[in-house]
Amino acid sequence: MTAADGERFAYGPGTALVVVDVQVDFADPGGSLYVSGGEDVVPLVNAEVEAAAAAGSPVVFTQDWHPEHTPHFAVDGGIWPVHCVAGTPGAELHPALVVPEGAPRVRKGTGAEDGYSGFSELDLASGRREATVLGDLLDSHGVRRIVVVGLAGDYCVKATALDGAARGLAVQVPLELTRFVQLADGDDERAIAEMRSAGVAVL
Ligand code: VGL
Ligand code: ZN
Q1: From atom 3 of ligand 1, which residue's Cα is the shortest distance away?
Q2: Residues contacting residue 183 through CB under 8 Å, at least 6 positions apart
Q3: Segment 79-86 mean pLDDT
Q4: What is the distance in A from the centroid of ligand 2 to the CA of 161?
Q5: Domains along the chain?
Q6: What is the pLDDT of residue 130?
Q7: What's the rounded Cα separation, in Å, for the pair 27 and 83?
Q8: Considering every ligand atom, which ligand is closest to the CA of 156?
Q9: Which Gene Ontology terms cover its molecular function (predicted)?
Q10: pTM score above 0.90
């Protein structure tokens, strides 16, 4: 499978669906870091979740899950408005998102400077990058392929896809199932190019 093939993985136990950060603050037009069009992916992601779960694929949901103060936030020296503070309504998964019973949720950015990737976060105290449970979870299911969907294409979807490829997984990112923050014009194209050069199939 190469990016040029453009053919979607068949769902089944060796292929996981990773639903990234489809949370109120990103996907709701009233959210504090609303990603334009974020709400439009929800029904499409739901159909994907249903297809994946029906075929026996693991389906994992990530959540951006920040402390009240983190260098990730502009008020604390970072670049983002306050968003997805642990336990607040904005950090909840979008209410229209289908979450199968028992599906694992991986929370990241919990104390970290960035925490964009579902696979790891940067521990500020130690300066080390530490793994979340996602990698072990996928390994324990024997997953070799992942489909990464959700928000946002130029941040957490990209970082998760890149980390997945670096772990040796085959990774697909279907563009209709993501939206981009676009802090700067062209961030979407740059993110797509970066993913493709790392071997991610952006479809
Ligand atoms: C994200 C910006 C800040 C994301 C998270 O989920 O893509 N973007 N925190
Ligand atoms: Zn964040």
Answers
A1: 80
A2: 79, 154
A3: 97
A4: 16
A5: 11-196 (3.40.50.850)
A6: 87
A7: 12
A8: 1
A9: metal ion binding; nicotinamidase activity
A10: yes
